[in-house]
Amino acid sequence: MPLLEPNPESLRPGTVREPSPDRVPDRNAQGTPEPLRSDLTALLGADKVLWKVSDLVRYASDASPYRFLPQVVVVPEDIDDISAILSYAHGKSRDVVFRAAGTSLNGQAQGEDILVDVRHHWTGIEVLDDGARARIRPGTTVMRANATLARHGRLLGPDPASAIACTVGGVVANNASGMTAGTTRNSYRTVSSLTFVLPSGTVVDTADPEADATLAHAEPDLCAGLLALKAEIEADDALTARIRAKYEIKNTNGYRLDAFLDGSTPVEILRGLMVGSEGTFGFISEVVFDTLPLDRRISSALLFFPSLTAAAAAVPRFNDAGAIAVELMDGNTLRASVSVQGVPADWAALPKETAALLVEFRAPDEAGQQEYERVADAVVAGLDLVAPAASVTNEFTRDTKAISGYWKARKAFVTAVGGSRPSGTTLITEDFAVPPSRLADACEALLGLQAEHGFDAAVAGHAAHGNLHFLLAFDAALPSDVERYAAFMEDFCTLVVERFDGSLKAEHATGRNIAPFLELEWGPKATELMWRTKQIIDPDGVLAPRIVLDRDPRAHLRGLKTIPKVEAVADPCIECGFCEPTCPSQDLTTTPRQRIVLRREMMRQPDSSPVETALLDSYGYDAVDTCAGDSTCKLACPVGIDTGAMMKDFRHRRHSPREERVAALTAKNFKSVEVSARLAVAAADRIGDRLLESVTGLARKAVRPDLVPEWLPEIPGAAARKLPRTARVGASAVYYPACVNRIFAGPDRHREPSLPEAVVAVSARAGKPVWIPEDVAGTCCATIWHSKGYDAGNAVMANRIVEAAWGWTAGGKLPLVVDASSCTLGIAHEVVPYLTEENRELHRELTVVDSLVWAADELLPELTVLRRAGSAVLHPTCSMEHLGDVEQLRALAEACADEVVIPDDAGCCAFAGDRGMLHKELTDSATAKEAAEVNSREYDAYLSANRMCEIGMDRATGREYYSVLMELERATRPSG
Questions:
Q1: d(CA 491, CA 464)
Q2: How far apart are CA 66 and CA 559, in angstroms?
C-alpha cells in the first residue's frame, strides 16, 4: 500500500441522520448478483459490464423524480452487442431498458434489471446532401449535431431546452420537440429514416428498398399483426377521426397511433411507431433527419404582462404575425432565473403575478427581418404591457447578447426553479397541451388547481403551441406529501382531459408519470390498441416494462426519490444532467451529476452501512481523483453548481495535517522549488524518457499516485534561465510570465523566440511595451495548491501574488498581463476567497488581463500582418471559457491564418496543471474525440494559450501545440 494512501473514512458523512425509505438495501452492497454478472461478462467482456454498487447507484437516477436501481449496467459498442443483450434477456426472462443522456423527466431512462448505456460508443454525425439531411448516431447530443449542421446553414427540427445534453436517440424515442418544433418540426415529421433493432434482434433499416421483404421473411407474424391493426383502425371512422384530432396539438402520450394511418407497409408503420416509443419497441441505432434552414436574422423581445392570463391571451396575435417561438414565463420562473448568469438582478423583486412572453422571429434576409419587425411592433402597440423593473424594455432587439440572455433565462426553467426549491424536496416537472386558443383559460384553471392543493408552482411553456410546463416540489419521504401530490395529479389529469380535451404529455413522453392516466386521455379502445401493438412487437415484454403501459393506478407514485441534503455547493442540483457532456471524465469514471448522486446515496444510508462503505471505497478514485477540477460543469449548469469545487474540498478533507504543512512549506519556498523544477526538466533531456517513466512509476506506487506526477514523453525541455530584459519606464502594462512558462520551454520546433520573448516583442512592435518585474520568480497564481485542495498553501501563495502584483502595477495603475489563461483565471478570481481582508482591498484595485485579450484588443489593431499560415486549428481551454476569451483566441488566429477551425468536439483536455501527469488516463479519455477530429486532416498551425493544455493536446494528437501569441509574433515580424 502507498505510504500516503488517503483514508476513505475522511469522506464519510458522519452526520446523525435517519435512513431514507428509498435507500439502497444492504443486500446490494456487493453490486450485481451472480450469475448475472458472470453471464454478461462472458457474453460481452469485462470492460462492458458495470457491476459495482457505485455503478448501479450512479445510473439509478436521471432528471426525473424517480429512482430505480438496476441489477447491472452494460455498455455495448455495436449492434452485435445489442443483439447479444436482447438474446440473453429473452433466454433468461429478463428485461432491458436503454439509457442515453438520462435527461428524461418521467423516468424513461431507468430500469430495474439490465440497463443499457447507449451514450458511450454511439456518437457521430455524417452530413448528407450538403446539409439537407444528416445521418446521426443516437448518443450524439442535439447541440453537437447542430454545431456541425450550422456550417451548412442547417439545423435539426427538434430543439428541446436540454439540447446541450439530450441525445438524438432520446429525442426521437420521446418525440421531444422544444421551443419551435410544434407539430410540424418534431421528430415524427422530420425523420427521413431509422435503423433500429427489434426486441427479437432483427435489424431494420427503413431506407433500404428491400426492408419490407426482409422484415416479412424474418418477422412474418409481426408484419401480419401490424397490417391487421392498420385495417382495424381504418375501418373505424370515429377512431380514425379521433386519432387525427389528437395530433392536431402536441401529444406524446402513448404510442403514435397515426403511424398506422400514415404508413402503408409494416416498415413504414414501424418507422412511425418507433418515434415516441420510449425504448419499448426497440433500439434506435441510427437516425437520418431531413434538416431545416438555419435562418440567421433574428429579432426577439421579452414582453412583460400584469398576469399569466394576460400574457397567454396575447399569444394568438404573435402566432398570426409569424413568430417562430412564443415562450411563456410566470413570476415564479422569472424570479428564480436570477440565479442564472446574465439575468438582471432586479427580476428578483418582480411581483408574483407578473408574467412574460419571449417572442422571436427568424428570417433568411434583411428584408424579411424588417417586415417581421414591422408586424411585431404593430402587435406590441396594441398590448397593455408593464415595466415592473428598471431592466425591462418591452422592445424587440437584434442584439445577440440580449437575445442569448433571454433564452438562458427561459431554458433554465427546470433547473433554476428546481435549484431554488426547498432543500430536501423532490421536483416534479409536468407537461401538457391544450388548443392554443384556450391557453389563457388553461392557465387560470391550472393556477386555481395548484392553490387548491397547496402548491406554489412555477409555470412556463411553448405558448405558441398551447404547451405548458409547471413544476411542483414536495417531500417524497413524507407519505402525506406524496398523497397530496397524488390528489393533485388526479384532479389535474381530469381537468386537462375533460375540460380542455388536451394532451397529458405534449413533449416529455408518457414515462412512468402519466402511464396510469393513459386510458383517461385516449379511452379504452385506443388504449387497448396500444397494448396490442406492444404485444405484437415485443411479445415477451423484454423492453422497458411499465414505462408507457401500466395498469397499476398508483404506478406514478412508485419509486419517487428522496433528495437528502448534501454539501451546500451541490444541494440545489436537480440531477438534470446538463453538466455531463462537458465533463472531462464522462467516458472514464463519473460525471458531476453522478458525483452528486453518489453523495446523496451516502446520505440516505445509516452511518457505516455496508452500502455507504462500498460507495466510499470507490468514490476516491471514481469521483475525487479523476475530477479535472476545471469547473466546466459550472458553465454548463444553469444555476452554476460547481462540482469541481466540491471535489477540491473533498481533496482537502483527505489531507493529513502533515500534508497540509508540507504544501504550505512548498508555497513559502516556491522560488527554490521553481529553480529545482527547471533544473530537473533540463536534466531530463539528458536522462531519457524511458528511465524517467520507470523512476516516477515506482515513486507513484511507493508514495501515492495522486501526489507524484508521472513523467510523460511529451513534456518539453526547460525554459531559459533568464527572462527577457524589459524596462519599467514607459511600460503600458506589467507582464507576468506564468510559472509554467518560466519552467517549460515551447515545443521543439517553436523554441525561439520563447513565449515571454514573443510577448515582449509583439507588444513593443505595437507601441505598447511591457515590463517584466525582476522578482517574479517564487510567485504563482496559486492554482497548484487550489486544484489539489491544499488550503494553507493556497492562502500563502494567493496573498503573495496579490501583494506583489499590487506593487508591480503601482497600486493597479497598470494592467497585469498574464500569459496562461488558467493563471489569469486564478489571479483574477480563484485567489479571492483565500485573501486577507487587506489583500482583498488590494485585489479590487488590480486589472488582471489575459494575454489573449491584451493581444487581440490592444496590440492587433496596431500591428501589420506580413505573413499568414494556410490553416490553424485551435484548442480553447476551459479557463478561456470561464474568462470569456475564446473569441479573442479566434480573432488572433484569424489574423495569422487563412483558415481557422475550432473542432466541434473541442473540450477540456483535463491536463489541469499536473492532473494529466497524475492520471494520464483522464487526459487520454477527455481528449479522444477532439484528437480524432483534429487528426482527420493536416493543419499548418496548432494553437492555444496555456502550456500545460498544449502538452495535453500534444500527447493526444501527436502534434505540437503552441501559444497563438508566438504565431502572432511570427506573422508580424519584420523581414530580415
A1: 25
A2: 5
